[in-house]
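Q: Hi! First time asking for a complex rather than a single chain. Here are the components, and I think there are two in total. Is that enough to go on?
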Amino acid sequence: MGINTKVNIAGVELKNPITVASGTFGSGMEYDEFVDLNRLGAVTTKGVANVPWPGNPTPRVAETYGGMMNAIGLQNPGIDVFAKRDIPFLRTKDTKIIVNVCGKSTEDYIEVVERLADEDVDLLEINVSCPNVKEGGIAFGQDPKALYDITKAIKAKAKQPVIMKLSPNVTDITIMAKAACEAGADALSLINTITGMKIDVNRRTFAVANKTAGVSGPAIHPIAVRMVYQVANAVDVPIIGMGGVMNAEDALELIMAGASAVAVGTANFNNPYATIEIIDGIEKYMIDNNISDINELIGCVK
Amino acid sequence: MSKIKIKANILRQEMIAGNVFSMVIQAKEIATQAVPGQFVDLYSADGSKLLPRPISLCEIDREQGTLRLVYRIAGKGTAEFSTLTSDHTIDVLGPLGNGFKKEGKKAIIIGGGIGIPPMLQLAKELDCEKSIVLGYRDEEFLSSEFKPYGDVYMSSDNGEFGVKGTVMDAIREYGIEGDIIYACGPTPMLRAIREYAIEHNIKAQISLEERMACGVGACLACVCKSREVDDHSMVHNKRVCKDGPVFYAEEVEL
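A: Yes, that's all I need. Here is the structure of the assembled complex.
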C-alpha cells in the first residue's frame, strides 16, 4: 500500500510536509552536498530584502541549554543577486520554493514582492517577526493593526500566495493570526524565535553582540506546539509549523497540533542530514501506524 | 569529495598541557581529503548542547585515515570531549573551511596559544625554508614536534622560556625574515602580524576564529569584515567557516 505524504499550502502541493526554517539553510546551496534537495517538500530561503543588508556585529550566536540564540540581523545580498543566483539554483531541484521576504518599511517589502511577481517561485513568506533588526521586522508582527495593514498591502501586489510568519513574542498569538487572515493571508508560519538574552559572566558582557537574540531549538518546541494548536483552532488557513523540530516525532507533534507543513531549523546545525531523516521518520511512522494519508494527521489531536 | 558527517572512533587522547588535550580519531573519509588549515566540527553527545565545536586539524594522516585534534578546554563542550577515551566515538563533520595555500620560498610559520596546533601539519607539508615562531602564555606544548620541520623560536609572556613577550618580539629579536607568513592565534596577535606584513610588504595568510553555528556557510553567524564586497551577501562580510578560516591579511579587517 502506497502512502500519501503530499500536503497543500494555499494551492501549492508539497511532496511531503518538510521544509526548512528561513535563515538556517541559506538557499540550499550549502546543504546540497549533504542532502538531496529534491526530497524536500520545499526550501524556504534566507530572508531577502530590496537591497543588500550587512547584518549585525559578531558574535551573532550563542548556545543555550537545549537550544541556541541568534542575532544575525538578516544579512542578505538583496533581491537582484538573489533572483539571478539563488532562484535559478533552486529551480534545478524538484522542490517548491518559498521565498522569505524581509524589509524595514512597507515600501521595502512591497518592492521585493513586486520584484518576485515575475519570478518562478511558489510561495512568499513574509518575515514580520524578526526580533533582531531595529526597524521593521517584528514591529509589524506585534501590533494587530500594523500586521493587518502590511498583509493587506502585500496581498494587493503579490502574485504568489502569501504566508505571514508570526512572532511568538506576543500576548495572544491568535489575535495576530486573525488579523493576518482578515487581511487576506493565504497561510501562516509560526513560530519565529523567542527573544532572549545571555550574559557571559567571565567576560561580563552579552554573549551576543546585539544584546538580545532569538532563541530556537528543542527548548522552545513545546511553545511552538502550543501556539500552532491555538492558531489552528482560531483560523482556517494552512499553517507551517516550526520551532525546535529535531526529529520525526517533533514534526508529527506539530502536524497533529494543526500544521500542514513543518520547517526544520536549528536541527540542521546539529545534524546536516536532519531534514531527510525526519522525512524518512514520518514515512516510517505512517507505515507502522497504518496511516495512508498524512492529511489524516493534520490537526488530529483536538 | 565533499564534506561528510561521521561517527569516528577515538584512538587515543592525552592531556599535553594544562587544559590542552590531544585526541586522535579514525576519520578516513575526512582525513583523505583534508588539507592543513582546515577544521572539523565536533558534536557533543549531550542533547542539551546542540552546536558543534570547531576544532583545527593538528595532524592529518591520509594513509592511516586519522586526524589529530589538539584543543583547549574552553567550556562544557570541550570539557566533555576531554573525558572521552578509546572506547568512545564522537560525531565529526568535515573537512571544513579552505585551508592554507602553499606558496613562497621562505616561510615564517607563527602560532599563538591554541593557534599553534594547526601550524604543525602545515610545517610538515611546506616544502621550503621555514622559521617557526611559537608564542605561549606560560606553558609550552607541541614545540618539540615542530623541530624536524624548521628552526623553532619561542616567546612566553613571563620570559620563562624563549623571548619575553609576544611572537612579534621574537621575530624582531631573532631578525626572522621570510617572503610568506602563515599565522593562527588570538586576534591581537593576528592584528600585529597583519600590520607587520603590510608594513614590510610580505604576504600573510592568517587563520581567523569566530563563534559559529552551521560550519558550512549557511547561517551567516561567523562573519568577519572584508575589504572587498563579499560574493555571497554583497556586503563586506566574509564567512570564516567557508570563505576562511584562512584569509590574506589585506583581505580582512581585524
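A: DSSP finds nine helices and 16 strands in chain A. Let me know if you'd like any chain examined more closely.
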